[in-house]
């Protein structure tokens, strides 16, 4: 009895049945939930309400993920990650892009790639010049200020594509980690033809945790980086080749992270 005709559909259905869906937070409860748990998840509709934009405006950014250069710094030998990186300062409703700079993390927060100045290609102007880009970063920065008081926020923006051309793609090859910032936003831009990619969030100083899978484009996980650690499990193709696209935004109050220069 042949089943090849419906095999790909069956694989997709099985993958969807195994997904644990996230607990969604209404936008008006985001600050309270972040204070209580250290994390909150917004649906696409909730994110649009929070930052004051439309889903169509966010969708207009998505094609940019088809033009990401390969990440040549992966120390696990993989060729599954593609990315761009740019930095901004968000203060009130103003967003300023700063001169291009390296991405750097201390080894205490990233044992695999810490201590290394990584120079990625910058984000393209057709993304950062969109009005929705300013609304998105400024709206999320306002959440940070709602928790810690108004101040400038130093924002690093990372466009990621993890693909399965080699069979397995690892969204977080460094494992469960913190980023060494104040807050992190992980936005799912899209996922296609994959299984896996489960997000896990754990208390940094406690026994509790949660696991779920983001599936809705432009849904977002917000994290208090001082209180929780996070990771995402590897992805595999359902058949052929698939990918998972994300936008990761980090918000830090005390300037951008960088190596200490001798004599400074």
What's the quick description here?
With 264 residues, the protein is of the alpha+beta class. It has helices at residues 4-17, 30-37, 44-51, 55-59, 125-128, 131-148; strands spanning 39-42, 81-91, 94-97, 153-163, 183-192, 194-196, 199-203, 209-212, 220-224, 228-232, 235-237, 243-252.
Q: Can you offer a commentary on this structure?
A:
The protein is an alpha+beta fold and about 260 residues long. It has a single domain, classed as q2cbj1_9rhob like domain (Jelly Rolls), CATH 2.60.120.620. It has six helices and twelve strands. The protein is globular and about 45 Å long.
Write a concise keyword list for the protein shown above.
264 residues; 7-stranded antiparallel sheet; 12 strands; Jelly Rolls; 6 helices; alpha+beta; globular; 22% helix
Please state the oligomeric state of the protein chains shown.
Answer: single chain
Task: State the end-to-end CA separation.
Answer: 73 Å
| Low-confidence runs of at least 5 consecutive residues | 1-5
Helix/strand/pairing class, anyone? alpha+beta
Rg to the nearest angstrom?
Answer: 18 Å
Give me the CATH architecture, please.
Sandwich
Mean pLDDT over the full residue set: 89
Question: Class, according to the CATH hierarchy?
Answer: Mainly Beta
Count of helical regions: 6
The amount of beta strand, in percent, is 25-35%
Number of domains: 1
Strand tally? 12
SSE order: HHEHHEEHHEEEEEEEEE
The general outline is globular
Instruction: Give the helix level as a range of percent.
Output: 10-25%
At CATH level 3, the topology is Jelly Rolls
Largest sheet: 7 strands, antiparallel
CATH superfamily: q2cbj1_9rhob like domain
């Amino acid at each position: 009895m042949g089943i090849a005709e419906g095999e790909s559909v069956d694989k997709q259905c099985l993958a969807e049945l195994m997904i644990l869906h996230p607990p969604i937070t209404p936008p008006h409860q985001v600050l309270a939930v972040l204070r209580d748990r250290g994390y909150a998840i917004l649906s696409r509709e909730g994110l649009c309400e929070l930052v004051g934009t439309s889903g169509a405006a966010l969708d207009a950014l998505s094609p940019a993920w088809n033009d990401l250069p390969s990440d040549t710094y992966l120390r696990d030998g993989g060729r599954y990650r593609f990315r761009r990186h740019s930095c901004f300062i968000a203060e009130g409703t103003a967003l300023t892009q700063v001169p291009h700079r390296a991405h750097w993390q201390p080894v205490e927060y990233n044992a695999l790639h810490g201590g290394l100045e990584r120079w990625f290609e910058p984000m393209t102007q057709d993304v950062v010049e969109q009005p929705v880009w300013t609304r998105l970063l400024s709206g999320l920065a306002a959440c940070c200020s709602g928790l810690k008081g108004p101040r400038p926020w130093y924002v690093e923006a990372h466009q990621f594509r993890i693909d399965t051309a080699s069979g397995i793609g690892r969204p977080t090859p460094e494992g469960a980690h913190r980023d060494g910032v104040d807050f992190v936003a992980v936005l799912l831009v899209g996922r296609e033809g994959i299984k896996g990619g489960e997000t896990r969030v754990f208390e940094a100083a406690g026994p509790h945790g949660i696991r779920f899978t983001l599936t809705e484009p432009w849904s977002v996980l917000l994290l208090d980086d001082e209180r929780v650690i996070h990771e995402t499990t590897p992805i595999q193709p359902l058949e052929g080749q698939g990918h998972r696209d994300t936008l990761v935004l980090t918000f830090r109050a005390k300037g951008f992270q960088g190596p200490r220069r001798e004599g400074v």
